[in-house]
Amino acid sequence: MKAAIQFKNVNKKYRFGQKNITALRNFSIEVEEGEFVAIMGRSGSGKSTFLKIAGTLEKPDSGEVFLNGREINKLTEKQKCKIRQKHIGFVFQQYQLLQEYTIWDNVCMPLYISHDTPDYQHLQHVLQRVGMWERRMDYPDQLSGGEQQRVAIARAMAAKPEIILADEPTGNLDYYTGQEVMQMICMSREIYRQTIVMVTHDIESANYADRIVTIEDGRLR
After folding, report:
1. What's the predicted TM-score (pTM) here?
2. Is position 15 within any domain?
3. Residue 16 in 3-state DSSP?
4. For 91-136, how does the pLDDT look when each residue is reduced to its tens digit (9 = 90+)?
5. By residue range, what is the domain housing residue 98?
6. Phi then psi for 96, rounded to 5 degrees?
């Protein structure tokens, strides 16, 4: 199997005042194409830093990072932006929906930003799959937390990305809604054959993954 995400001896530090905080230390991992990996660990262990670097949102201080075989450290910001738009879907704990836009426009937003024409049939299929097609002309403030997360999942799938990066996607949801959201993420993976990396504190959610890895003090445990 080909590696969709590969980190080789990645290091990342942050500076807070006079203090350096090491988020990742000689961190290496491979996530195979089509694999679902759950990342667990305590707060501050480096989980979110790993996700941000994998999503090209941050640069490592040293080490190599590959997405589908391309070393992203050598790409320009414009090239990395195109990778985010075309190849990566993000699902966040806070949903990050735009309140002044309809559900339809929120789902289409990644396509609007990249000046791509929305594939109506694909988006209809995605919204039907997450149970939000009939609500597509509603606004985010008319939806429950679980419904907003469904929209966020649909938005992540809008550009048909090969990779989904999810940061605590069930963190704000009750148990049953969280399980429902996890089933939708798994359904997306099966239908679209996506690679999924999910950061979570919730072992119930992590158990949906093919593999659970734990980060401790910036290293794989």
Report:
1. 0.90
2. no
3. strand
4. 887 888 999 999 999 999 989 988 889 899 999 988 998 889 999 9
5. 35-59+76-210
6. 55, 45
C-alpha pair distances (Å), 58 with each of 46, 64, 72, 77, 166: 13, 13, 11, 11, 16
- 193 Ramachandran zone, left/alpha/beta (phi>0; psi -120 to 50): left
What are the CB-based long-range contacts (under 8 Å, 24+) for 127-133? 127/103, 127/154, 129/154, 129/184, 129/187, 129/188, 129/191, 130/154, 130/184, 132/103
Structural domains of the chain, count:
1
Whether 17 maps to a domain, the answer reads no
CATH number, domain containing residue 111: 3.40.50.300
Tell me how far apart the alpha carbons of residues 28 and 8 are, in angstroms, rounded to a whole number: 5
Tokens representing 126 are 């995605």
Strand partners, 92: 167
Per-residue tokens: 144? 């429950």
Q: Where are the alpha helices (DSSP H) in the chain?
A: 47-54, 77-87, 103-113, 120-129, 145-157, 175-192, 203-206
